[in-house]
Design a protein that fits this description.
globular, single chain, 8 helices, alpha/beta, six-stranded parallel beta sheet
């Protein structure tokens, strides 16, 4: 099978980073916030202004991108999938990677280095905000994703393993398979492959 894998929220626990570093950032600057852990967008998670939200990510995006830990067992499961002759396609819309600006190639290189450092094996990497179109173009058989908008769009055409978070609980349907860990992802891949 051709398996598409998102990075942020799937290979990483982006939500945990945002909650930890966002609350620290806003507290140190006396910026009032409220946490809503059932929302995907960081600005709405904290109920802060667009300006404060952008300032937080401007200060943290490169630290996050270079230093965020990989989720437990992700490397092992991907290695196992590769050994079973599945093709792995990293499909990400990481900040800056899809923008026409000076940071585009810098961030793409950081992503590739992070994958290499964490020993993630893959056939190709695609930087795109149109993941549903990429999945169709590459004939991806299953996508592992966490962003609700992407889960909903992609699952219209192919199975999606939705990496469980509070913000994607409403993603349901015949083509949506919820996973709670990377071993759970592995079992869902086997289930989909056997159907």
């Amino acid at each position: 099978m051709k398996i598409g894998i998102d990075i942020d929220g799937v290979l990483t626990d982006e939500q945990r980073y945002v909650l930890d570093y966002g609350s620290a950032y806003f507290t140190k600057r006396n910026i009032p916030y409220k946490i809503h852990d059932n929302i995907y967008d960081s600005k709405e998670i904290f109920e802060v202004s667009e300006e404060d939200y952008n300032a937080f990510w401007k200060e943290h995006i490169f630290d996050y991108s270079e230093n965020i830990s990989i989720r437990p067992f992700a490397k092992d499961i991907i290695k196992k999938l590769v050994e079973q002759n599945h093709e792995i396609y990293i499909i990400t819309s990481r900040s800056y990677t899809t923008y026409e600006n000076d940071n585009r190639f810098k961030m793409q290189n950081i992503v590739k280095e992070w994958l290499k450092r964490n020993e993630i094996k893959y056939n190709d990497i695609i930087f795109s905000r149109e993941k549903d179109k990429i999945c169709n173009e590459l004939n991806i058989d299953v996508m592992i994703e966490d962003k609700p908008e992407n889960v909903d769009k992609i699952s219209k055409d192919i199975p999606v393993i939705c990496f469980n978070e509070g913000y994607n609980k409403k993603c349901t349907g015949d083509n949506v398979y919820r996973a709670y860990s990377w071993y759970d992802v592995y079992n869902k891949v086997k289930e989909i492959n056997n159907n």
